[in-house]
Design a protein that fits this description.
Elements lengths: L2 H11 L11 E5 L2 E4 L4 E4 L2 H4 L8 H13 L10 H14 L3 E5 L2 H20 L5 E5 L8 H6 L16 E4 L4 H7 L4 E6 L2 E2 L5 E2 L2 H14 L2 E5 L23 E4 L10 E5 L20 H13 L2 H21 L4 E7 L2 E6 L5 H11 L1 E2 L1 E3 L2 E4 L7 H15 L1
Parallel strand pairs: 3-15, 5-6, 5-7, 7-10, 10-11
Antiparallel strand pairs: 1-2, 2-3, 4-12, 8-9, 11-12, 13-14, 14-17, 16-17
Helix pairs in contact: 3-9, 4-9, 10-12, 11-12
Length: 392
C-alpha cells in the first residue's frame, strides 16, 4: 500500500491518540529503515528504545520462528522453558532474586507498585501505602502509573486518579524527606528520566535515597523500562550507580520488538506475591520470552562496552557541530538527550530531520536519541551528517 492509502485508513478507522509524522515505515535492516515510497532513513529511535537489535536480525527471527512453531501461548497455570530461562539470565546478571513477567512498561510499573504496597501491608498493616516519586518523572499511561508520574500535564482528564503518591524534587534529598511521612512504603524513580528530557540522576543523590530507604524500611523501586536491557551501557542503569534496588521494572528492549516486560525483586521481596495476588494472561509468553533469551545472550561485556563507546561518539559529535539550535547534551550509553535552543521547537526540528532522512524523538523540551544498540559506525555517521546538514 502507498502512504496516502495507509493514512486514509488511519483517518477513517483509528483513534487519533497519536500525533504521527508523515511517514509510513515498511521495512528495515540494522538501523536503517525504508518507507512505503522507498525512501531511506537512519533510525535514532529504535521504536522508542524497543528495537534493541535493530531490524531483521537473523538470530532474533530464528529464535521467534522456532518457538512459534512449537508453542505460541499457554496459560501461566503451566510451566514453559523460555520464561524460566529469561528469569535465570536476569537474576544471575543482576544479583536479584526472582522475576515476574508482564507485557509493557506500564504493566511492569503497576506490578512494582502493587508489590511495594503488599510488602508494607504484610509487615505493618494498613495505612502505609504512599509511594514517593520524583517531579519530571514518567511511569506509564494507566490510571495508577499516570498518578505516579510527577508531571502536572499528565494529571488531566481521567479523574479520579489513584491516590497514594507524593512528589519530590529530583537530586534533592531534603525535598524527599520533607514530603515523607509515616504512611510511606517506597520511593520510585527513574535513574535517567526519559520522557522528562533524558536527565540522569546524580549518583550521590541516588545512593542517599537508597540509604534512606534502608533505614526506614521503604522499598527502593527503580523504573528501568527505558534505561534497562543494555540501553545505558550496562545491563541495567542501576549497575552504574552502586546500588541494588529492592525491585526493578523492565520492558521496551528486552524482547527486541515483541511485547514483554516485568519486575525483578530482591531477596526481601521474594515471596511478596503469593498465588492469586497478581497475574497477567500474556506475561511470560513463550514467543516473546524466546526473543528475550536471544537478546540477553547477545548482550555480553563486549556488546555493552560498544554501547558506551557509540553513545560517547554520538554525543561528542553533536557537541562539536556547534549548531545554534542545539544546546547541552547528556545521557548514559545510547540514551541521549539534546537541548533545543532558539525559536524552533523540538517537534519542528524533529520534523525537519525526519523529512531529510533521520528519525529522532522528542523528550521534555529537547531531542531524544535512542538508536538501535547494534547501529554501525557507518549508520551513525550517515545520521550525524543528516543532522548537521539539516539543522545548520
Amino acid at each position: 500500500m502507498k502512504f496516502e492509502e495507509i493514512r486514509a485508513l488511519d483517518e477513517q478507522y483509528v483513534m487519533h491518540s497519536y500525533s504521527r509524522f508523515p511517514v509510513a515505515v515498511d521495512h528495515g535492516k540494522g538501523a536503517t529503515l525504508w518507507d512505503t515510497e522507498g525512501r531511506e532513513y537512519i533510525d535514532f529511535t529504535a521504536g522508542i528504545g524497543v528495537c534493541s537489535l535493530g531490524y531483521a536480525d537473523e538470530g532474533w527471527q530464528q529464535a521467534i520462528a522456532r518457538q512459534a512453531a512449537k508453542l505460541g501461548h499457554i496459560s501461566n497455570l503451566f510451566y514453559t522453558e523460555p520464561y524460566a530461562l529469561v528469569a535465570q539470565k536476569l537474576c544471575t546478571r543482576t544479583g536479584l532474586s526472582n522475576a515476574m513477567f508482564a507485557n509493557s512498561g506500564a504493566e511492569a510499573n503497576e506490578a512494582m507498585i502493587k508489590l511495594a504496597r503488599k510488602y508494607s501491608y504484610d509487615r505493618y498493616g494498613k495505612g502505609r501505602g504512599t509511594i514517593l516519586t520524583l517531579r519530571n518523572s514518567f511511569h506509564g499511561r494507566t490510571i495508577t502509573t499516570l498518578s505516579a508520574t510527577g508531571q502536572d500535564k499528565f494529571h488531566d482528564y481521567f479523574f479520579p486518579f489513584t491516590e497514594g503518591f507524593r512528589y519530590a524534587g529530583a537530586n534533592d534529598i531534603s525535598s524527599l524527606e520533607e514530603v515523607a511521612g509515616h504512611d510511606v512504603c517506597a520511593v520510585m524513580m527513574e535513574l535517567v528520566q526519559g520522557e522528562g528530557g533524558v536527565l540522569p540522576l546524580d549518583v550521590k543523590y541516588v545512593q542517599a535515597v537508597a540509604s534512606l530507604c534502608a533505614r526506614r524500611d521503604w522499598l527502593l523501586l527503580v523504573d528501568e523500562v527505558q534505561s534497562g536491557v543494555g540501553r545505558t551501557g550496562t545491563l541495567f542503569a542501576f549497575q552504574q550507580y552502586g546500588i541494588r534496588p529492592d525491585v526493578v521494572s523492565f520492558a521496551k528492549g528486552i524482547a527486541g520488538g515483541l511485547p514483554f516486560g516485568g519486575v525483578l525483586a530482591g531477596e526481601k521481596c521474594r515471596d511478596v506475591f503469593a498465588p492469586g495476588t497478581h497475574g497477567t494472561t500474556f506475561g511470560g509468553n513463550p514467543v516473546s520470552a524466546a526473543a528475550a533469551c536471544y537478546v540477553l545472550d547477545r548482550m555480553d561485556g563486549g556488546f555493552l562496552e560498544q554501547v558506551k563507546e557509540k553513545g560517547a561518539y554520538i554525543r561528542r559529535a553533536v557537541e562539536e557541530m556547534g549548531l545554534p539550535c542545539l544546546g547541552e547534551t547528556r545521557g548514559l550509553g545510547m540514551m541521549l538527550g539534546v537541548d533545543v535552543t532558539g525559536e524552533r521547537s523540538n517537534r519542528e526540528l524533529a520534523s525537519i530531520l525526519i523529512e531529510k532522512g533521520l528519525l529522532v524523538l522528542t523528550a521534555g523540551a529537547g531531542l531524544r536519541l535512542l538508536p538501535p544498540l547494534v547501529i554501525t559506525r557507518e549508520e551513525i555517521d550517515k545520521g550525524l551528517a543528516i543532522l548537521k546538514a539539516a539543522l545548520s
